[in-house]
Every structure is written in structure tokens, then in C-alpha cells.
């Protein structure tokens, strides 16, 4: 797909291949301020190579090895979708790409299509003759030349982020030992309250209310060490990072994520509802600051894809016996999630 509407695309023409532009672009990389710089891997024939470079610039790392749990990111569409989800969730608003003259027309098309999806401001460093610009970039009206013009571009504030950044602090009150059970608020001083055995299979997912009704009854998140949170935050796939973060700060079984829907996460990603077996014991947990961008990315990934009505946010990583999550959990022993990941409730 070729992107249309080039108002937020800028081509910087550097016919002399001046090292200044590459150095300035790399120095401008600052994800915390909504700007990243992508330096494409040279001479890579992998179809998803540029999307992987984008994920790397976003601070994500693919698990290595021939049996990597990130193998599904070898798909071009899935890799770009993951990169779009992370960009939206972390409020990236300006992306610079160097050495664009070395990219194939197909990868330039992918990049422009991704810009249309994310709405970011895209700056392309064309370090070659202007006459060799491909037709798709020939339609870009904004072209810059000269060091002063490039420095002025980098000084611009950039477009408004697609979503606000996540400020520190928990915006909702937490009451220890309080849970929401099968659509009814209950209190318990020591454990989750469960519905009566006569409830049978419990309520269907469609009848289990969303998180909004239970914000006064929230279980505090379990503390997770800083090194562990950093490792989970660097996972490349948004669904894997989001799901494992929930398992880490709630210590629920993996099956509790099967019915997690968009309505089970607050708009500011400050609380999440997890579901018990047959929805007889469902609880709302506060989402710690470190996990909020991860769940936001999982939400964005869900919205960007085609899915069935009512399908859970984490449904794709719970298929095939949750192989991807199980493998990631086994690679992260510090989190102690291997046993949890084995508890997949049908």
C-alpha cells in the first residue's frame, strides 16, 4: 500500500552524503520526547528488516534463536503492526529515518503506509542525488537542503501525540482485598470471593460487566522488581509484553486473560479486570505505572487488527496452547511465571 497525503513527510536531500546529517539525526533520538531515529540495517534481505529496525528504535528487542517466541514477527504485516502499536502507545510523534536512498521501493512504500497508520511526522534522509528520488517520494512537497534547515526542523515541536503520556502515580484508590465477583461487588479480607457452586459454568463473557462499574473495588498490584519490568518492557510483541505484565503484577493464571476485552481496561489504562473460571470470580487490579504503556500497546495492537466481535485482547497469544507466552515465561525465570503460564483454563 502506498501512502497518500504527504503533509507530514519531509525529505532531506543530502547529495554530498555529509556525515553531519546522520550524526544530527542519531543525536536527536529521544523516545521520552516523542522522537526516534531509525538507522536501517544495511544490505538485509529479510522482508521485515525495516520493521524490525523500527521496533529496535522503539526500544524493543526480538528474542534470538531459531525457535524464538518472536518468530511470528518475521511476518511483514505483523511486524509493522507491532511497531505501529508501540508508536501509538508511547506517543511517538516524529520519526527520522537515515540512509533512505539504500531502501528498496517496496520498503519505502511500507514506511509511508506505516506513517499513514500512526499519523507520525516522518523525516527521510535521502543521502544521494535528488534526481534519483523514486516516484513515490517525488510527490513529497516538503524538501529541505542545508544544515541550517535541518537543524531548524529538529527544533520544531512536532505534532501533538496521538495519546497522552502516562504520568507517574496511580490515579485510582486501591483497597486491599476488595474484588468484583461475577458482576457483583464483594469484600474479602484475605482471598478472592467465589460464587456458589450452584452457579454452574457462571456467566457468559458477554454478561460479565466491564471494568468501569468496579473502580471503587480495586486490588493493589503486586510489586515487580525494576530489572524484571525492564525485561518485560523490552519485549517486541505488544501482546506478549502486555499479557506477561498482567501475570506479573496480578499473579493470576494465564486462563484469566482469555476473556480480557477492551471494556475490561480503563481508558487511562490505570485498572484492568481479570476473569475467573466461568466468570464466577472476576477481580479488578490497579495497573502499575511501568505496565501502563504495555497494556496500551496491547490495546492499540487489538484495534489495528481485524478480530471477531467480543474477541479478547490477548486472544492471539493464547492460541496453540499459548506457546509464545510459555516460551517467553521460560526465558524470564526471575519473574517466576513458568508455573503461571502452564495454567491455561479452557
Number of strands: 9
> What is the succession of H and E elements?
EHEHHEHEHEHEEHHEEHHH
User: What is the C-alpha radius of gyration, as a whole number of Å?
Assistant: 22 Å
Main sheet makeup = 5 strands, parallel
Which overall shape is indicated by the principal axes computed on the Cα atoms? elongated
Distance between the termini: 38 Å
**Range of strand content:** 5-15%
Largest beta sheet: strand ordering: 2-3-4-1-5
Per DSSP, the total helix count is 11
**Could you estimate the helical fraction of the residues in percent?**
25-40%
Derived from helix and strand composition plus strand pairing, the structural class reads alpha/beta
Average pLDDT: 80
Low-confidence stretches: 1-6, 168-203, 341-346
Structure overview:
It is a single chain. This protein has 346 residues and is α/β, with parallel strands linked by helices. The chain contains eleven helices and nine strands. Strands 2-3-4-1-5 form a five-stranded parallel β-sheet. Strands 6-7 form a two-stranded antiparallel sheet. Helix 4 links the parallel strand 3 (94-97) and strand 4 (121-126). Helix 2 (49-57) packs parallel to helix 3, helix 3 (76-89) runs parallel beside helix 4 and helix 8 (238-250) crosses helix 9 (292-304). The longest helix is centred in the first third of the chain and has 14 residues, at 76-89. The model is unreliable at 1-6, 168-203 and 341-346 (pLDDT under 50).
